[in-house]
Amino acid sequence: MTLQQGTALTWKVQPPSAGQYKFWVHYDNPGADAQAAVSINGEQHGGGIKLTNWAKSSDPERAWVSSYSWLNLKAGANTIVVTCDNPGCAGLLVDKVAISPMSVSVFPG
Fold first, then answer.
1. Residues 45, 69 contacting (CB under 8 angstroms)
2. Domains and their CATH numbers in the chain
3. pTM higher than 0.85 for the full model?
């Protein structure tokens, strides 16, 4: 999925219990560091998610990385929306998302 300014990507997740989780995004960013807005069940998550070019590469083949944001989720169904609300995140490719316990330190996908 390609982020474009003004577009939103939506996922439904079902954690086993209420609490804080890591919401992971795996993406391709061969350009400058970016930021996207995040909402959970219709409420904005302060700070959104940073989509950093961790690979420090301008080669799209080598710029696949992941970032996470700490989200408070309720038990059961939750809707997470990532919105490209600025030109910095336009053109980034997103291929996977995941939620994990806070103790997980690498993308679980």
1. yes
2. 8-100 (2.60.120.260)
3. yes
